[in-house]
């Protein structure tokens, strides 16, 4: 049983102009995600959802000015990006990076080695990776292609979910894993997320702009994000309300806060 705990988190983003004042994006986020729970974070564009995932992952552009993030009581903010991954945090980037010259199979084995603390035995690994790829309808030829290079949007997302299954983190942060997917890819990706939850009893923070993915992945908790903080929390029924009414009622109150 693991718990990611975020308390009164405030985050600045550095401006590209060094002389400019940093602007505060997150304005006091409180959230607790435990093993076996799916939390959906929904909110309008620009509300700070990706900033939250970057801050958890330790992206250098996003500076935590106050508040805390802990994983099972350990201070995540004190950890390097690698240490966060080894501690059991997983971040699927909204814009996954390309790594030319590194094949997917090498990339995955290196990542698994780092997270597990030892290299998986090659024979087992080949079998394990192959099975995971089959489950996600990924062509085996993919294993020899450079990471994300020339991958379509849907292929990148499948690759993220492949990593999720093989790295078996304690808590997974999925930032707009549903964006740009056609219905078939959305179903395959969602099934991968559901398998991760069943097999690893993983905790999931699912950040999304649309309610569409929530037809395939049922969250126990839904949080509305507006103006850099969570402005309302509820169960799956809250997502239905958002589908019908949109975010207007929340963006208005966030602006006047
Ligand atoms: P969301 O994911 O909810 O669409 P983001 O976290 O991407 O929102 O962005 C929140 C706000 O922070 C936006 O106004 C965005 O322009 C700003 N922002 C995020 N990252 C940066 C950055 N690296 N440089 C400047 N502004 C940024
Ligand atoms: Mg505060
Ligand atoms: Mg975003």
TrEMBL record:
<protein>
    <submittedName>
        <fullName>Fe-S cluster assembly ATPase SufC</fullName>
    </submittedName>
</protein>
<comment type="similarity">
    <text>Belongs to the ABC transporter superfamily. Ycf16 family.</text>
</comment>
<dbReference type="InterPro" id="IPR003439">
    <property type="entry name" value="ABC_transporter-like_ATP-bd"/>
</dbReference>
<dbReference type="GO" id="GO:0005524">
    <property type="term" value="F:ATP binding"/>
</dbReference>
<dbReference type="InterPro" id="IPR010230">
    <property type="entry name" value="FeS-cluster_ATPase_SufC"/>
</dbReference>
<dbReference type="Pfam" id="PF00005">
    <property type="entry name" value="ABC_tran"/>
</dbReference>
<dbReference type="InterPro" id="IPR003593">
    <property type="entry name" value="AAA+_ATPase"/>
</dbReference>
<dbReference type="GO" id="GO:0016887">
    <property type="term" value="F:ATP hydrolysis activity"/>
</dbReference>
<dbReference type="InterPro" id="IPR027417">
    <property type="entry name" value="P-loop_NTPase"/>
</dbReference>
<keyword id="KW-0067">ATP-binding</keyword>
<keyword id="KW-0547">Nucleotide-binding</keyword>
<feature type="domain" description="ABC transporter">
    <location>
        <begin position="4"/>
        <end position="251"/>
    </location>
</feature>
């Amino acid at each position: 049983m693991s718990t990611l705990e975020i308390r009164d988190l405030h985050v600045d983003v550095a401006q590209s102009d060094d002389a400019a004042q940093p602007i505060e994006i997150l304005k006091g986020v409180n959230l607790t995600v435990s093993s076996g729970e799916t939390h959906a974070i929904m909110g309008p564009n620009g509300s700070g959802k990706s900033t939250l995932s970057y801050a958890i992952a330790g992206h250098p552009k996003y500076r935590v000015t106050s508040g805390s993030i802990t994983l099972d009581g350990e201070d995540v903010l004190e950890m390097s990006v690698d240490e966060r991954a080894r501690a059991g945090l997983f971040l699927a980037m909204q814009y996954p990076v390309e790594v030319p010259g590194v094949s997917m199979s090498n990339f995955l084995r290196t990542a698994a080695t780092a997270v597990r603390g030892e290299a998986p035995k090659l024979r087992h690994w080949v079998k394990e990776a192959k099975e995971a790829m089959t489950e996600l309808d990924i062509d085996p030829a993919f294993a020899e292609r450079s990471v994300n290079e020339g991958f379509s949007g849907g292929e990148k997302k499948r690759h993220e979910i492949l990593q999720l299954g093989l790295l078996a983190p304690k808590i997974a942060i999925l930032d707009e894993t549903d964006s740009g997917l056609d219905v078939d890819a959305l179903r395959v990706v969602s099934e991968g997320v559901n398998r991760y939850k069943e097999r690893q009893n993983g905790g999931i923070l699912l950040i999304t702009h649309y309610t569409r993915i929530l037809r395939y992945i049922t969250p126990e908790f839904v949080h509305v994000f507006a103006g850099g903080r969570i402005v309302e929390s509820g169960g799956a029924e809250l997502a239905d309300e958002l589908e019908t009414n949109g975010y207007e009622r929340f963006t208005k109150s966030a602006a006047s806060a």
